[in-house]
């Protein structure tokens, strides 16, 4: 689908009353405004209304430093608050992913092509951060911690963790496709695209009007030339869910099937169960990250050595599946983009 047609049903802007809608409005205000500005940029560029300027490129240059501090401060605030914060933590994943996609945004705005080296560096960075989450959840799922990750009281936390890490896995795979297909651009989707209709209880407006039509929510935007498709990531896709999505605009990526993120785990003290287990793509990618990348990743060489060692341990007895996952996603993307290899 061409860009102008793809973007037409999406909102360019979200009203303040909806954007800043909850008890976390004050703490999340700046992060939401920044994410919203990315959505405006994306909408304008896809609709052909973007005017190139140096100010946007300068904001992209400064984004990583701002983003790292903002994300860390908000995560600390979540943990210290004693208030529910899982939805806000999930929302913050756009900011986390964007840390690794600033070069892609620059190419998108300039109309230029990312190099394979730039894509590889983004994958290295995504894998490193995905591995951090993978290590935390693996520790929580261990016998030493009483398999706490799988306790019923932690269901919301587990769903959030699987979703956040799974989006890092999907980003690595989508960038792997971009390495194979010259000129492909991949971007995390800002709020205007991740939630394409107003967020009110049970799909209704304040006046009680129900929203109808296909679901256009997307986690990533994938572009090649004038063609655009959205990619929505789910840890597990049941039989009915694909029918709810806009089949012309969106492909679904199933973390368990498409990415191979499932394995038999001891979820209680006495039995094994096959569960959704995101992070394996990041762990596999981490094994191929060269030691020379430590400087670009902003970590000491010994930290990279330790992280690669953790990845090696976690991938023990697991067959590599990054390339198979890439094959599956690439076939689906190119079919939707109406392109052939």
Quick synopsis:
This protein is of the alpha+beta class and 341 residues long.
Descriptive report:
This protein has 341 residues and is α+β, with helices and mostly antiparallel strands. The protein has one domain. Helix content is 52%, strand content 9%. It is built from 14 helices and six strands. The strands form two sheets. Strands 1-2-3-4 form a four-stranded mixed β-sheet. It has a two-stranded antiparallel ribbon with strand order 5-6. Strand 2 (220-224) and strand 3 form a beta hairpin. It is globular. The chain starts with a helix and ends in a 5-residue tail after the last helix. Residues 200-204 have low confidence and may be disordered.
Largest sheet: 4 strands, mixed
Distance between the termini: 17 Å
Task: State the secondary-structure class.
Answer: alpha+beta
Overall pLDDT score:
89
So how many helices? Answer: 14
Shape: globular
Compressed to H and E, one letter per element, the order equals HHHHHHHHHEHEEEEEHHHH
Total strands: the figure is: 6
Notable characteristics:
single chain, 341 residues, alpha+beta, 4-stranded mixed β-sheet, two-stranded antiparallel ribbon, 6 strands, 52% helix, globular
């Amino acid at each position: 689908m061409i860009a102008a047609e793809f973007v037409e049903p999406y909102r360019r802007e979200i009203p303040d009353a909806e954007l800043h809608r909850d008890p976390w409005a004050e703490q999340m205000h700046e992060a939401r405004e920044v994410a919203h500005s990315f959505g405006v940029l994306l909408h304008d560029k896809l609709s052909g209304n973007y005017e190139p300027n140096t100010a946007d490129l300068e904001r992209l240059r400064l984004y990583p430093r701002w983003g790292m501090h903002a994300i860390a401060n908000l995560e600390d605030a979540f943990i210290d608050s004693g208030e529910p914060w899982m939805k806000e933590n999930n929302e913050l994943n756009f900011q986390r992913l964007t840390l690794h996609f600033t070069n892609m945004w620059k190419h998108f705005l300039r109309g230029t092509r990312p190099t394979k080296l730039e894509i590889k560096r983004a994958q290295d960075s995504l894998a490193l951060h995905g591995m951090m989450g993978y290590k935390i959840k693996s520790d929580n799922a261990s016998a030493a911690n009483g398999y706490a990750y799988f306790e019923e009281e932690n269901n919301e936390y587990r769903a959030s963790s699987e979703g956040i890490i799974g989006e890092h896995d999907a980003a690595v795979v989508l960038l792997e496709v971009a390495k194979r297909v010259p000129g492909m651009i991949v971007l995390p989707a800002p709020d205007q695209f991740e939630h394409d209709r107003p967020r009110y209880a049970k799909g209704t407006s304040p006046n009680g009007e129900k929203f109808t039509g296909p679901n256009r929510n997307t986690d990533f935007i994938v572009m090649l030339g004038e063609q655009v498709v959205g990619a929505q990531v789910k840890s597990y896709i049941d039989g009915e869910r694909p029918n709810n999505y806009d089949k012309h605009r969106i492909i679904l990526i199933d973390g368990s099937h498409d990415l191979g993120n499932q394995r038999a785990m001891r979820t209680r003290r006495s039995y094994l169960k096959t569960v959704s287990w995101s992070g394996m793509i990041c762990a596999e990618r981490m094994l191929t990250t060269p030691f020379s990348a430590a400087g670009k990743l902003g970590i000491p060489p010994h930290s990279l050595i330790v992280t690669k060692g953790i990845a090696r341990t976690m991938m023990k007895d697991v067959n590599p599946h990054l390339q198979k996952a890439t094959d599956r996603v690439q076939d689906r993307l190119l079919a939707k983009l109406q392109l052939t290899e």
